[in-house]
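Deliverable D5.2: sample structural annotation.
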Amino acid sequence: MSANLVNDRADAHNDDAPEAPGGPAGGRLSGRARLRRSLVLAAVFVCAACGLVYELALVALGSYLLGNTITQASVVLALMVFAMGIGSLAAKPLTRHAAVAFAAVEIVLALVGGTSVLVLYAAFAWWSLYQPMLVVLALAIGLLIGAEIPLLMTLLQRIRRQEASSAVADLFAADYVGALVGGMAFPFVLLPWLGLLEGTLVVGAVNAAAGAAVTLGLFRTSIGRRARVLVAGALVLTLATLLALAGLASTFEATARQRIFRDPVVHSERSAYQEIVVTRSMKGKDTRLFLNGDLQFSSVDEYRYHEALVHPAMSGRRQRALVLGGGDGLAARELLGYDDVASVTLVDLDPAVVRLARQDPTLRTLNDDAFADPRLHVVHADAFAWLRANQQEFDVVIADMPDADDVATAKLYSVETYGLVRRALAPGGRVVVQAGSPYFAPEAYWTTAASLRAAGLSPTAYHVDVPSFGDWGFFLATHGPAPELRMPADAPTTRFLDADTLEAAQTFPKDRAAMPLSPSTLLEPTILERQGNWQGY
């Protein structure tokens, strides 16, 4: 037997033999044991933070690509928590080799969790296998996270034998604090500084390093040299893979994004609120704006939508107008075409969209450089929050808000929101709401009518054909009797909407007639349930 092997075994005995409860004489842990125990708990902290980031990343990507954050969060969290239980049970046989097993679990978790966003985005863009891949990844990450706890508990007990309740309390305290830090770091540090794709890859690298450090640093003498070499090699390979992928992330994202959209992508950015993409056809005739993958307009036919949205509300007083949403400036363009409109207040959450509409030459041409008009005042705020604080009255309110495919957007179509809009209307004022497609999402469309009525407004329904969207519906509403739908006598020249078109727009076929539905509220967002899987493009 070589001298080195004898020394290794002696070190293993000295390092890994657990101290009795209360430690050595004097009832205290030795300084070395206390340090080792603190470092294991620090590893618990780091691994918990990384695990929560993986969960949040899957939820965030689902909300970007599919909307409906509640469904995405429920699926991911339910699958992961279930798999964590299975993983804890499966880890029992591994506790005999806890140090090596822990390193292996963390390295595999780093690879699976760190690349999860990349793999899931690829499944969405190329293979149309998003949901099956989401299930596989959520289960795999949950299994690996669940396996951590028994292994870490074993490692802690090797340093110091404790009562089970005391050991569990220490372990879970570090775990929960780590989860807190991971949860806070995800929206405030990782997303703004690194982005979703690069952020998860970097977190994976941190996860692998923390896991391997416990084995190679604190428990190195409890494993053979061959195992140490294998763990070190796996760590180096994992770190190299994750960091190389992080370097290629921008290229991958651009390629995947282009795969999703029909036309070439000419602008893309991820703001603090959403993914913003502009595409342009090869001949430059069709420019399209997408927010989180949802089409906002096509330059080929956007005038049909915006003329139908704005002009029916302009019969009557119109000195003061309010636009909720509409950061592209296209609704403001129609309003500013009336010389007697004294002011237009535009409330849009995302400064990045407005900045794009101000600066992009094509969008500036489309909106007639509306943001240069001194009558237009822009406020960056959540529409619901702004309406709650608002003390002004408006003659015309244009609700050009995103479709209700998520909780955050569903609240904009609630009774509470329309109640705030009603309060903001001057006597005789009118509000027009874009309400989705009465053909493809009829229940959601007529739910909007029910919500308007519940808020004390009387709606008049109409719909027009917008080829890039399909048949699209609106409601014009006011206090008192339902308003008459007509074109203003002094309306600016329009390309599509006229009196005859507007009269025809009020006719609905039998299979799309009005439906008696309950309204949508903040606590019961029925419009979200009735939106279905309709995608407006």
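Annotation notes: Residues 220 and 228 are 7 Å apart (CA to CA). The longest helix spans residues 31-66.
The annotation will be released with the project's public dataset once the embargo ends.
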